[in-house]
Write a structure and sequence with these properties.
There is one protein chain. This protein is α/β, with parallel strands linked by helices. The chain is 30% helix and 22% strand. It is built from 16 helices and 23 strands. Helix 3 packs across helix 6.
Length: 453
């Protein structure tokens, strides 16, 4: 048996192609299924089953279209209500795919009907595919289905992980879908591979003897997640449409300005410093990084028209794929990020450091310091006089920010601050971007406290 991992760093997820050399089974396919089809062709295997561990909340599944394209059986939990024909799966079911036998286990927690798949060869369990159940050194979050079920699902998660550990020997490899930067994970992890044996000593569901303590720690540690998640389950139970990557219509400067003045979203994909130096007035800055889909899906309203700007055509193509994975399909247009064409509509704002901010305080400058990080980061340390508004809440909380002075915006590394600064400038604020580090535990401009300011 060979397990081929398909990473999607922009969502912090993994998909899997499992093969015996002749046939293959796919688990939790992303929407851009060409990656899977290419792997299957390279390995000269035929896909006979496409399996879902759960109805996903963080991406549009490619499983439905992959099964239709290949003629494979599409395995989804029998308890999930879908509008399409599927191969219904429940606890204890067995799937035979070539030399591989796959045992289905109901492992509720991340979702109510969550499944895990144990792959055997020659009667021996070799690998378990755990979706959002047992992750590397953590577990999947339990608040995505229904906030009122969070505690109950946390208890289910505890017992599901323990069930897998009780049933499987130490050498079985663990293959989760989430946990590589995905907001579906209850906490962050840096581990790239694991086994049941390793999880026995590292996973809190297995190392915490007190169930109540596990539930309390999990629920209290849950951080906010992107708002676009609310739309994923609905799309995935309906059977998502095929991915369309038709290039967006090219737009000139006049049309871009017209769209901005109409209140539409124009997304500039360049680096934060390039954007700060010069940009089309009214555009917003979402850098082409792995966090692009999460940030866009958190800030831009679901279904809103958006246009992409980039300084290279390849960047437009890459961004289009990344956004389509979360259901932000087909940009309304695309344009070149060419400052030479913007003329009187070219805007800019300063890029600063925390050292610059300390100097501004010593000079007695009137300013607002805005921290756009999450609460747990704030609690670990923050600027002494800062106002905290998470970047994704800015569109509805700008009234809390004074407009009669510059707003210096910071986050942990500068990326979220860049989004926030562009949103504020779009709304008419005088902004200055603090492109500096404020990692957990840091207290920027701490000298203000000692000076009594």
């Amino acid at each position: 048996m060979d397990v081929v991992t398909v990473d999607t760093p922009s969502l912090g997820d993994r998909s899997y192609l499992i093969t015996d050399g002749e046939v293959a089974v796919v688990v939790d396919a992303q929407r851009d299924i060409d990656r899977i089809l290419t792997l299957a062709a390279d390995h000269r295997v035929r896909i006979t089953y496409v399996l879902e561990t759960h109805i996903h909340n963080d991406y549009v599944t490619g499983g439905y279209q992959l099964a239709r394209r290949t003629g494979a059986a599409y395995g989804v939990a029998a308890a999930d209500d879908t509008s399409f024909e599927r191969h219904s799966l429940a606890d204890g079911d067995v799937i035979v795919a070539g030399a591989m036998t796959i045992s289905v286990r109901h492992t509720p927690g991340h979702t109510t009907n969550h499944l895990s798949f144990i792959v055997h060869e020659e009667g021996r369990p070799l690998a378990v595919f755990t979706g959002g159940s047992m992750l590397y050194g953590t577990v999947g979050r339990t608040d995505l289905v229904d906030g009122g079920l969070t505690d109950r699902l946390a208890r289910d998660q505890y017992h599901s992980v323990r069930r897998l550990a009780d049933e499987l020997p130490d050498e079985v490899t663990v293959h989760p879908t989430h946990g590589f930067g995905s907001h579906c994970s209850a906490s962050e992890t840096s581990t790239c591979s694991s086994t049941i044996g390793a999880e026995r000593s590292e996973n809190p569901a297995l190392t915490t003897a007190d169930e109540e303590a596990f539930v309390r720690n999990l629920v209290e540690g849950l951080a906010p997640y992107p708002t676009y998640y609310a739309h994923m389950a609905g799309m995935n139970t309906q059977g998502p449409a095929p991915l369309s990557l038709t290039p967006a219509a090219p737009l000139g400067v006049a049309e871009l300005k017209k769209r901005i003045h109409a209140g539409e979203w124009v997304i500039d994909l360049r680096t934060r410093r390039a954007f700060a130096a010069t940009h089309l007035g009214g555009a917003v800055n979402f850098e082409l990084r792995n966090d692009l889909p999460s940030y866009v899906g958190w800030v831009i309203p679901w279904g809103a028209r958006f246009t992409l700007l980039a300084d290279e055509v390849e960047h437009l193509d890459e961004a289009q794929i990344m956004l389509a994975r979360i259901g932000f399909d087909q940009p309304a247009g695309a344009g070149a990020a060419d400052p030479g064409q913007w003329q009187d509509d070219s805007h800019s704002y300063p890029v600063r450091s925390f050292q610059d901010l300390s100097a501004a305080h010593r000079e007695g400058r009137e300013l607002t310091v805005l921290d756009v990080r999450d609460e747990w980061e704030w609690k670990s340390g923050h600027h002494p006089t800062a106002l905290r508004i998470p970047f994704y809440e800015l569109p509805v909380r700008m009234a809390e920010i004074a407009r009669d002075r510059p707003v210096w915006v910071y986050c942990a590394t500068g990326s979220r601050a860049a989004v926030a600064a562009s949103l504020l400038e779009r709304a008419g604020f005088d902004v200055e971007l603090v492109d500096d580090f404020c990692l957990p535990g840091d207290v920027p401009c701490a000298d203000l406290e000692s000076a009594g300011r």
